[in-house]
Amino acid sequence: MLFFVKRVYQNLKDSNLKVCSVISFPLGSDRLDIKVLQSIKAIEDGATELDIVWNISAFKSKDYKYIQTELSEVKKNTEGVIHKVIIETAYLSQEEKILAINLLKDLGIEFLKTSSGYAPEGAKVEDIKLFKSLADNKIKIKASGGIKDYETALKMIQAGADRLGTSAGIQIVTGK
Predict the structure, then answer these.
(1) What pLDDT shows up at residue 1?
(2) Catalytic, out of 35, 51, 124, 140
(3) Does the annotation mark 33 as catalytic?
(4) Which residues of 88-101 are buried (b: 16+ CB within 10 A; e: fewer)?
(5) For residue 176, pLDDT beyond 80
(6) pTM for the complete prediction?
(7) Long-range contacts of 68-77 (CB under 8 A, 24+ apart)
(8) Is 6 one of the catalytic residues?
(9) Are 60 and 99 in contact (CB under 8 A)?
(10) SS3 at position 20
(11) 113 included as an active-site residue
């Protein structure tokens, strides 16, 4: 996806639209130095927002120090942009979801994002409610994955999602 950032930026530079790039998409398994380089290059090419897939393997292995280092390094090298961390809720227990939002809040990450769209399921209303209840106005929630119709989109917003990630945006807003 990084391949298109510069082109998209050039096409949108005279508009109000912002450019976002995914980092380490879709699995989050790139090395730390590669994630930092991807992030820096995305910003150089015009991105003002980063959707960072965290290293789910490290998180599931309880290597929270690695997650903290990974995200801190990306954030330190990309100040001034919006950081959304994709945590893949489909693979997390309730306890891990709570740990995840608290970890992201402590790191000063701007958004928790529920899914890359590659997991077996995406955003769930109960997860959005949980995250919103724990956010303490320190982090925003982007519900992503599986939002294909107006009713689902509305439920996510009512549950507390600040943003939605969907490939069905036009269908949702037009009702088609």
Answers:
(1) 66
(2) 51
(3) no
(4) bbbebeeebbebbb
(5) no
(6) 0.94
(7) 68/103, 68/107, 69/32, 70/32, 70/35, 71/104, 71/107, 71/109, 72/107, 73/32, 73/35, 73/36, 74/23, 74/35, 74/36, 74/39, 74/50, 75/107, 75/108, 75/109, 77/36, 77/39, 77/40
(8) no
(9) no
(10) strand
(11) yes
